[in-house]
Design brief:
seven-stranded mixed sheet, 12 strands, 3 helices, mainly beta, Elongation Factor Tu (Ef-tu), domain 3, single chain
Length: about 210
């Protein structure tokens, strides 16, 4: 069971009544793994199509400023115990947005940029140079098939550790921007999560 709680309350810009926010959701994957978390932003976009079951948790989305302390733990515990009253109505899958492609998904502790660039959409010519632009910063990276296929100090765009194989055997693999021996996030001026990534070919000066 995976539990996450990222609730920025960004689903509605209006004044909130009784500290209302995004609802707690549930997904069951083909592997039997259960995912419980707030349906905020694109959190459930990554499991939407793979999930065998998508439902709302039977817990209020309002009533406390600190829902993660006062409301959600009890709901997650009830789901973990398999209580039949722990889940509410199914979630309309069309209400969950697609994964936004070509974005910074998150930054790990080493400063590597995990992206939503799909491996199949990147040309694979073996150590191919590519221009990468994030925000106002542009750098040259080497398209690589492994983390150590580039020299120290070089920026690489390579298959990362994020991805999965679905029930039909189709593989999804997300690309990663990393600076061997350095911090790619710093190199690109510390871009925010969700920043757009643009790729261009050829070697031209920054």
């Amino acid at each position: 069971m995976i539990y996450h709680n990222v609730a920025p309350r960004e689903d509605d810009d209006e004044v909130r009544r009784d500290n209302a926010g995004e609802r707690l959701a549930f997904a069951r994957l083909p592997t039997g793994v259960r995912v419980v978390g707030v349906n905020a932003g694109h959190a459930f976009s990554f499991v939407r199509d793979a999930a065998e079951e998508l439902r709302w948790a039977a817990v209020a989305a309002e009533g406390s400023q600190f829902r993660s302390r006062d409301l959600f733990p009890q709901a997650a515990a009830a789901i973990a115990l398999g209580r039949p009253d722990a889940l509410a109505e199914p979630i309309d899958r069309t209400s969950i947005p697609d994964v936004p492609l070509g974005r910074v998904a998150y930054v790990d502790g080493y400063g590597n940029l995990k992206t939503t660039l799909e491996r199949g959409a990147i040309r694979d010519g073996g150590a191919t140079p590519v221009r990468v632009r994030i925000g106002e910063t542009e750098r040259e990276a080497t398209v690589s098939d492994g983390s150590f296929a580039v020299a120290p100090g070089q920026l690489a765009l390579a298959p990362g550790s994020s991805g999965w194989t679905d029930a039909r055997g189709n593989e999804t693999c997300w690309m990663e921007l990393f600076l061997r021996g350095g911090n790619a996030w710093e190199q690109f001026g510390r871009p925010p999560i969700g920043a757009d990534i643009q790729l261009g070919g050829g070697s031209r000066p920054t």
